[in-house]
Design a protein that fits this description.
- The complex is a heterodimer.
- Chain A is 43% helix and 8% strand.
- Chain A contains 15 helices and eight strands.
- In chain A, the strands form two sheets. A four-stranded parallel sheet of chain A has the order 2-1-3-4. A four-stranded parallel sheet of chain A has the order 6-5-7-8, sandwiched between helices.
- Chain B is built from 13 helices and 19 strands.
- The chains are: A alpha/beta, B alpha+beta.
- The interface between A and B is medium-sized, with 25 and 30 residues.
Chain lengths: 353, 452
């Protein structure tokens, strides 16, 4: 059994309780916040557990790495306060069940890239940036054997993650990878932040996609032609689990000659794609989703962005078409990097069309 | 030389007729579990006159004639149970007229659903028709001959309710027209002439459609599907009642299936919504999800799972992938919506008994006046044992439909027998008289809707 490493004393002595006072979705004074986080730590009910939209951001706001978000989700589950209606919770839990045979294990003994539950996006792993890199499993029928499960944080179901993650880690490890480049930063967050918080041993080296891309771009520096584009980045919720890797966004943009536009909603103050909010039980959740998305996209437009860069496929599906409608080109980070070295990714060409 | 073969060659030309075993084999079965039976000839006419000549030839020799559209009914309805001539109508594929202002299309009998969809998208983007969940090769005439339903069944009813007029070749070989076209007034309405509706739903046994006029409907710029999910099947009828009360949707389909796992033991209610603007779309979404269904969301018993732009046709055929060998067949039934919970539970029981992953789907017809309920059973075409299992499951489901007070839709022979046994004696007598009057030699699609 795995347990969350959470230190109540850290919260007691915390001077500003930024985990809650910084929250974009709950308006809360410091004293109240202090009291509520301690109630949650003691296992008591708190309005925060009901109001939380599960944006992951408090994991980043906590300066001590004390995992307030994991704690909130633990308590939501223990007290039966699931943010989503129960049919959507069951649906989500079922999604992660592999149903088309066992994984085919091939020993790789080298670096791999793991697409997690997004095998259908294997076409993004092409070109010089990914030369010599093996996709650990590109079979859509088998992708749920490689699914990090962290999505269940949105559903108040941390027990599902704990129950399934060890097997997923074991499946990946059986391929004997030296490094596992995580296509989605949710996977990276799972194998670093979450596993660390729960004392789970990870027998391989997880690498964030952006760190990998940055390294490869430096190796291919001679091929880079500055893009000269004004870009924004749709930071996903799971990026809050590895904020130290977020710096690679700016480093990559600088390297490929893209101007990272200044926005009201960026970095720690970023607005999420809000996909997870639309189905929540709280009254007005669907409309709130639309409002957040509108505010986000209008801010991109005000900042003069020409391109909106994504890491998360769910963010891409949710916002990609919306930004396109107002003339901002949606693109995955890997594709933007490919364009910078003179390649023509399919989505980039289609988007032009 | 076979004289019937030679006469068919004289009518349609040598390249459009065959009695070669390898070609007859193709026409001996459909994609379901019905027992195969080879025809003696296949002829593919191009004109009404050719059909008339073939039917007269068949009369002369008392040879069965089985009209064939896309051949996708799955229930064996175009399998030539008594041999004879398969009349493959796919060459009669002309879209004769689209009247944009009066919103109808006149098509020949071989025009497929996909062909009309594509034609309208290209030439009349403001118009659409009620496209069924069958593959695009299914014909429009075939669909109305079985009282099919499409993705506009909720607002406008069965596909056969959308017929404005028919041109029919009677079993005698004579041609007649039904509707406003019969008085030379164009093809814009079936009414108000005295009702001559003795052709729709008869599987062609009372006459072969050669042309038909189909109602078209407004096609809005944005069309997509929103999904509502519940776990308790007992909630489905009341939720459908509430959604249909809004009168703001196109298609409404509820489904549950063992595979893929996300759909297992849950009920997804897919609601197609169309709009010409974001403003109109949001107005409709607010009323449906927030106002009509908000109470379920707040209580946590129902969940809004988002709206996906672009139409996703029902993909029941994907169930054929669940067992190796790619076979599937389903029992369709027209049921009261309130029977959904029973249909789901009993259908699961039957599937589980026969070791088949369950797939259950229900499409709302009109203002929830009924639901077309489908229980789908996958099988391996190369494995007779799984075909037998599926056939048994299908027959048990036919029995179930009648027990639950429904009516089997497009029944195969077994289902027809169950219905005929239960028919009111006077109704049976009337149907028998109609059939004897129109087809005294019993040559058109014999074996189907035969009442003795």
């Amino acid at each position: 059994m795995t347990y969350l490493k959470f230190d109540t004393e850290t919260c007691i002595s915390c001077p500003d309780t930024s985990c809650l006072t910084e929250c974009q979705h709950i308006s809360i004074e410091r004293d109240v916040a202090h009291n509520e986080i301690l109630k949650i730590a003691r296992g008591e009910n708190s309005f925060v557990l009901h109001e939380c939209v599960t944006c992951y951001a408090c994991e980043e706001y906590c300066p001590y790495g004390n995992h307030p978000f994991y704690l909130i989700v633990e308590r939501q589950e223990a007290l039966g306060i699931t943010p989503q209606p129960s049919p959507l919770v069951k649906r989500a839990i079922n999604i992660g069940i592999p149903f088309r045979g066992e994984p085919e294990i091939k020993e790789i003994n080298g670096p791999v890239i793991n697409l997690g539950a997004f095998s259908q996006l294997k076409y993004l792993i092409e070109g010089k940036l990914f030369e010599g890199l093996t996709i650990i499993s590109d079979d859509e029928r088998k992708m749920f054997h490689y699914f990090c499960q962290l999505m269940y944080l949105h559903y108040g179901k941390i027990s599902v993650i704990k129950e399934r993650l060890l097997k997923i880690i074991d499946t990946i490890a059986r391929h004997r990878p030296t490094e596992v480049i995580c296509f989605h930063d949710e996977c990276f967050g799972a194998y670093t932040s979450f596993c660390n918080a729960y004392g789970i041993t990870v027998p391989f080296q997880p690498v964030h996609l952006f760190e990998y891309l940055y390294t490869r771009l430096n190796e291919l520096k001679d091929l880079i032609k500055p893009l000269g584009l004004k870009v924004t980045y749709q930071r996903p919720c799971s990026s809050r689990l590895s904020p130290d890797k977020h710096r690679y966004v700016k480093k990559i943009f600088d390297l490929i000659g893209a101007e990272y536009v200044k926005r009201e909603y960026s970095e720690q103050n970023v607005l999420c794609c809000a996909l997870t909010i639309q189905g929540q039980k709280k009254e007005g959740s669907r409309r709130l989703t639309l409002e957040i998305q509108k505010k986000n996209i209008e801010d991109m437009k005000r900042a003069g962005a020409e391109v909106c860069v994504f890491n998360c496929p769910a963010c891409f599906d949710t916002l990609g078409w919306k930004v396109k409608e107002i003339g901002i080109k949606p693109v995955f980070m890997s594709d933007l990097c490919r364009v910078a070295i003179g390649e023509s990714p399919v989505d980039w060409k289609e988007s032009d069309g | 030389m076979d004289s019937i073969y030679q006469k068919l060659v004289d009518i349609v030309g040598e390249e459009h007729v065959s009695n070669r075993p390898e070609e007859l084999f193709i026409y001996s079965f459909d994609l379901g579990t019905a027992e195969p039976k080879s025809p003696d000839y296949v002829a593919a006419p191009k004109t009404v006159e050719e059909i008339q000549k073939i039917v007269r030839l068949a009369n002369e020799h008392t040879v069965p004639v089985v009209p064939l559209g896309g051949g996708l009914s799955l229930a064996g309805l175009a399998v030539p149970i008594k041999g004879g001539i398969i009349l493959d109508l796919k060459r009669m594929d002309t879209i004769i007229e689209v009247n944009e202002r009066a919103r109808y299309a006149v098509v020949e009998c071989g025009v497929s659903q996909g062909q009309l969809t594509s034609y309208l998208e290209q030439h009349y983007p403001h118009l659409t028709h009620s496209e069924p969940g069958a593959p695009p090769a299914a014909t429009i005439a075939g669909n109305i001959m079985i009282h099919g339903q499409g993705d506009l069944a909720h607002p406008y009813g069965f596909s056969s309710d959308m017929v404005n007029g028919l041109e029919i070749i009677l079993p005698s070989g004579d041609m007649c027209r039904i509707g406003s076209c019969a008085v030379g007034a164009g093809w814009f309405t079936l009414h108000p002439l005295p009702d001559a509706g003795i052709f729709l739903g008869w599987y062609g046994t009372t006459g072969i459609i050669t042309k038909l006029s189909l109602k078209l409907f407004p096609s809005k710029k944005i069309r997509g599907t929103g999904t509502f999910v519940v776990e308790d099947e007992r909630l489905v009828p009341e939720i459908i009642y509430k959604i249909t009360h809004t009168q703001l949707c196109e298609d409404i389909i509820a489904y549950s299936s063992a595979i893929p796992p996300f759909a297992s033991e849950l009920h997804h209610i897919n609601v197609n919504i169309a709009a010409d603007s974001e403003k109109e779309l949001e107005f409709k979404q607010e009323i449906i999800w927030d106002d009509a269904l908000g109470e379920y969301i707040r209580k946590g018993t129902g969940g809004y799972n988002g709206f996906v732009r672009g139409l996703q046709r029902p993909q029941i055929s994907k169930t054929s992938d669940y067992k190796k060998g790619g076979g599937f067949e389903y029992v369709g039934a027209i049921m009261p919506v309130e029977t959904y919970p029973h249909c789901y539970r009993k259908g699961r029981e039957i599937s589980e008994k026969h070791s088949i992953p369950y797939t259950i789907t229900g499409r709302v017809i009109s203002a929830a006046h009924a639901m077309m309920f489908a229980w789908t059973y996958a099988f391996n075409r190369a494995d007779p044992e799984t075909i037998r299992q599926a056939r048994e499951a299908l027959h048990e489901t036919d029995d179930l439909v009648m027990e639950l007070g429904g009516v089997i839709w497009k029944p195969g022979l077994y289902g027809q027998k169950l219905i005929i046994e239960r028919l009111d004696p006077m109704t049976r007598s009337l149907m028998k008289k109609i059939k004897e009057l129109l087809d005294p030699r019993g040559i058109i699609n014999p074996g189907n809707w035969e009442i003795f």
